[in-house]
Structures are given as C-alpha cells and as structure tokens.
Design a protein that fits this description.
Elements (H helix, E strand, L loop, with lengths): L7 E5 L3 E5 L1 H4 L8 H4 L7 E2 L7 E2 H16 L4 E5 L4 H17 L4 H8 L16 E6 L21 H10 L5 E3 L16 E4 H11 L4 H8 L9 H12 L8
Antiparallel strand pairs: 1-2, 3-4, 5-6, 6-8, 7-8
Length: 246
C-alpha cells in the first residue's frame, strides 16, 4: 500500500482505533529531542522489563494486535522491545570485545557486528516503536531470531503468515525486508515497527549529526567511524528499510 493514497490504522492517545493517512500523521506529531531519539530518556516509555518496555501508544496498538492474533491461535511474544542507549552500548561492545579477541581487526569487528546489530545511538529500538517477536506456542530453539525459524517447517512460520496478512492493520510494518536490492542489515522477519510513531521519529532522527554523537560517546571501535563509514552506514543501515516506513 502507498500511504499517500490509502488510509492506515493508528491509535491516538491510546484511546481508540482510528483511520488516518500516515502522511498526515507527521503534521500532528510532536518534535522529538536528541536524547529521546538516541535512547537516553523518554517519559512515554512504559513497561517493566526488557521485553515489555514500549512507547505507550505503540503498546496500545501491540496489545490489540496480540489479542487478535490469539483468536487465530498465534501467541505473539516480544523478545526485544525498547532498548536504552546503555543497553545497546553493552550489546555492541560485548560483541566488539569478542570479535577482536578472536583476531578480527577493529573495522572487521564493526562490520561483522552491523550485519544484525546497530551501533548505540542509531537503533530504532531506542524509540520504543520497534519489536522483535516470536510465537510463544512453540519451545524456543537455541537461536530464536533466525530466518529459517519463520519459514517452511520453522516454529514461527504461522506467525510470519499472520503478520504478513494483518500487522499493517495495527500499524506494524516489517523493517528490514527480504529485498535482494536492499543493503545494510540482513533480513529480519521478526522485526516490526509501529509506523505512526516511527515515521515522524525517523524524520527527526535524520536531522541529527550522527558522527558527532558517536564521537562524543567514545564507543569501543569509534576510531572506525570515519566520515566515509558514517555516510555509508546511514545510507545503508539506517535508511535502506521498508519504503513504507518513510
């Protein structure tokens, strides 16, 4: 669907399900601060755990989608939702230490990390709009977030079919699609974004000076974040996503 021509579903103030064009939603959204956009504080985030924390409006939409899925015997479980800057920094730096200890150079380590994981300060999970999901009806395999789990005889293939059919009705869109021409992060059939919030957030995020932010934070491997690297990372990893999320 082209959001400029079709009506999309969104939830306003957590009160009701309403239809408005996603393109029009930008006009009524608040401005977002740098700290909100890089995971350093957002009063709209609610929830108690790593898997339950979301933006309050995304949470309302998710709960409605979960209830609908249960009626079709799909039990959506969130395995990752909101991540603070510090949480993402810990994930990134632990991988960086492991890869460099295994003999990879700093830039090789960074390149390997960003196949699936974001550099802290650049994750969509900082916004409280994005979720990684599985189907709780099945025992968890050793690695739950693998493409093969969502297709064929994989435990989450029914979830994937259901999401393909229904997720956009609730405002959730797959982010890193299976498009052979797409660059950046590899395909993630488990990662969905609540578009009515993430679209305006991305619009504001694009205005930030990413290079300066990463330099200030002194993240392990930051010496690799050259101007050339940042331009490529921003183009491919941040912006080469599902076009419906712009």
């Amino acid at each position: 669907m082209n959001r400029n021509h079709f009506l999309k579903t969104t939830f306003l103030s957590g009160l009701a399900l309403t239809y408005i064009p996603l393109s029009s939603f930008h006009l009524i959204q608040e401005k977002y601060s740098k700290n909100q956009l890089i995971g350093k504080g957002n009063s709209a985030i609610i929830g108690d755990t790593y898997t339950s924390k979301m933006h309050k409006e995304a949470k309302v939409a998710f709960e409605k989608m979960k209830v609908a899925a249960l009626k079709d015997e799909i039990n959506i479980e969130v395995v990752s939702a909101y991540r603070s800057f510090q949480k993402q920094k810990s994930i990134f730096e632990n991988k960086y230490k492991r890869f460099t200890q295994e003999g990879l150079t700093p830039i090789e380590s960074v390149e390997k990390i960003i196949e699936y994981s974001t550099i802290p300060g650049t994750s969509r999970h900082h916004w409280g709009t994005d979720i990684d999901i599985i189907d709780a009806n099945y025992p968890k395999p050793k690695s739950v977030l693998k493409e093969g789990n969502f297709y064929g005889n994989g435990p989450y293939c029914n979830l994937k079919v259901w999401m393909d059919r229904h997720s956009e009705f609730y405002g959730f869109y797959e982010v890193y699609t299976k498009n052979p021409k797409r660059k950046g992060f590899k395909y993630e059939p488990w990662h969905f974004s609540y578009a009515p919030l993430s679209i305006p957030m991305l619009k504001e995020y694009k205005k930030l000076d990413i290079k300066s932010i990463l330099k200030e934070e002194e993240i392990l491997g930051h010496e690799c974040f050259t101007e050339e690297f940042i331009v490529k990372y921003k183009t491919e990893n941040i912006l080469d996503i599902n076009p419906q999320l712009f």
